[in-house]
Amino acid sequence: MSEVAKFFAESAANIERQGADAHAHARTLDWINAIAPHKYTYNFTWLGRPVIQFPQDLVAMQEIIWRVRPEVIVETGVAHGGSLVFSASMLELLGGDRIVVGVDIDIRAHNRVEIEKHPLAKRIRMIQGSSVDDATAAQVRALVAGRKSVMVMLDSNHTHDHVLRELQIYSPLVTKDSYLVVFDTLIEDMPAGSFPDRPWDKGNNPKTAVWEFLKTNKRFVVDKKIEAKLLITVAPDGWLKCIAD
User: CATH number of 3-242: 3.30.470.20, 3.40.50.150, 1.10.10.10, 3.40.640.10?
Assistant: First the structure.
């Protein structure tokens, strides 16, 4: 076995042990609950734009994008545009005619201005409209048509019904061996009432939507190795790998 292969074998063994460590999982959740009131995810930018993600999740996305090499990444939820810029930067490294499509019911004017003047704007397409609206979905499908490799990231309204509908609409776009990433499934693991100003909570969130979706959709499985690797993630049970055409 080569030295490179030895390193990756050792890493895989470490991840397996870490993933099975219930104490580590519990302490990780304790830490997440402790920093949640401070809006920790608001602390970070990607190439100048607020990204509003755990850095650990960005590292995982980087690994997936580099491995899958998608031609299109579809993202629901735009906010300040940092995630769009992140995806665009990865697609720029991959080269070719690759784009990221951002969908949001309200792309605020000041955020649109900053995104459109960004050096990577050439790889970004934005659609304003509800992600679960038929007309919006049709625009997304038009941009994806003919592409051989497509990835989807869901990060908009986090209620069960909304995410389940997004899963039903956008999962057919995801190509085999690519990923459908559902963010903020972590809500289910946090104490009830953690989001008093939001319509989602324990029992009504992206993770419950994923669980229901997977009961009938056999094209996807949860990639638990990613969660085991990260420990710190907003997407437990949300890293869905497409295993069938």
Answer: 3.40.50.150
- Judged on CB neighbours under 10 Å (0-12, 13-18, 19+), 106 is exposed
Query: Are 106 and 77 spatial neighbours (Cβ–Cβ below 8 Å)?
Result: no
The CA angle 93-98-103, to the nearest 5 degrees, is: 115
Let me know: does 217 contact 171? Beta carbons within 8 Å: yes
On whether the CB atoms of residues 182 and 235 are closer than 8 A, the answer is: yes
User: Tell me: the pLDDT tens digits for 222-245?
Assistant: 999 999 999 999 999 999 999 999
Question: What whole-number distance in Å separates Cα of residue 76 and Cα of residue 206?
Answer: 13
pTM (predicted TM-score): 0.97
H helices present in the chain, as ranges: 3-19, 22-35, 55-68, 82-94, 109-116, 134-144, 160-170, 206-216, 224-230
Of 133, 66, 61, the C-alpha closest to 103 is: 133
Q: Look up residue 229 and give its two tokens.
A: 């690797």
Q: What is the pLDDT at residue 138?
A: 98
Residue 7 confidence (pLDDT): 97
